[in-house]
């Protein structure tokens, strides 16, 4: 392929180099202050009721439930299943614990027809991975105002049968990725930039993007390689449930590594465009056909200025084939309309939020589609990496922050949507993402598009369901203040273990915790974890 312009593209790396440090190759601990409060084991949204034999006709059980709910001051109860011994399993509509849960079971047992009522305790869900870093360091996947709430989403989809193309610096071998990696391609066109002795070839291995004294003598980059492609691939689709490392957003999706960026974290726009074209399954002159076309393409890279025509053409080709293109908004702290590919037509552009759920200070904003966790220098995004300082060495786990980290999270969500609702086209996927996104705590004055992506709500919406139900303690309070609170604007978000819980409404938030019950707040502050235990 003959390059049509000499513009080069620099990665929207884990941070804007002049603004936010990249972070070291070795993983660093995240601050504990923002971790959700530890939850009691008794939090649940279901109770079990056993009636005495022959005491209650089947048609009158609803009356028992209604009277008990009224005595307990909660919402309605709905039968879901019957146990092997004939007991009824009831759904409360939301998580309950402590005094609220005890009040409900006590109210049920006050009816002489009830033999017993007990919580249907949560013994743990299979969707929560056993990867050791998930519960300790992958805050971006947790179910709270800053996280993606992945456990509930994984109950619906894991990305099986989907292919995420990562157009980036290539990939390195890693035990948390290898099982999911497909044969890719290297579109770095010059031997010097590719550091592999040739131009385009069938080996997408990352040879290291450390700065070169000849190619980029004034580079502000650290002298080490970033292993950027390996990091973004892990965010999107690292293996889960394998007892090691991390979990990706779409752990059963396949990764199609497409190398288009080399030394100095730079690559020609024409090479990037060729990579996008090939990833989509379209023909690229002189290159074998791609046997594994992508179902979503991720571009965690950027260049200032207008969208280059050659890149727009490649994106248009992908979109015409029904393949969404997800891109990083950029890390210059400006309007994303001034940076490509975020300003290319038809893309899903992603801003970055930090550990509190607020817009990250480095993130481009304004003209974006939505936002996702990208971290900050103090609470970064943990993912797969490499231990090599410059040339590749052994596998490692590294932390970085930037819109580069936010984009692959959304690409992973797209893979979940495509698995769950394969009939959705590009517009349908965009609608599911934006129609269910929630607002950042404290708001997002510069503009976060539709808000923070919410995977499980998007999956429910795509299936024609109601993603924003209310129930439990939050639902009970909302029924009392519905006129002033307004309609729900998000689902109920509950931290690891089931408490505290949060739900956004048109005019504010309801916060529920096992110790203090449900409370109304007009604004969810940036340090939202602090109000969970406040009096």
From TrEMBL:
Domain called Peptidase S8/S53: residue spans: 159-451
Active site (UniProt): 168, 228, 404
Signal peptide range in chain numbering: 1-26
Family note: Belongs to the peptidase S8 family.
Lineage: Bacteria, Bacillati, Actinomycetota, Actinomycetes, Micrococcales
Chief location: secreted
Keywords attached to this entry: Hydrolase, Protease, Secreted, Serine protease, Signal, Zymogen
UniProt-listed PANTHER family: CEREVISIN-RELATED, PEPTIDASE S8
A GO CC term attached to the entry: extracellular region
Protein name in UniProt: S8 family serine peptidase
Domain of life: Bacteria
GO MF annotations, alphabetized: serine-type endopeptidase activity
Segments forming a coiled coil: none
Localization, UniProt: Secreted
UniProt key word tRNA-binding: no
A single GO BP: proteolysis
Organism encoding this protein: Kocuria sediminis
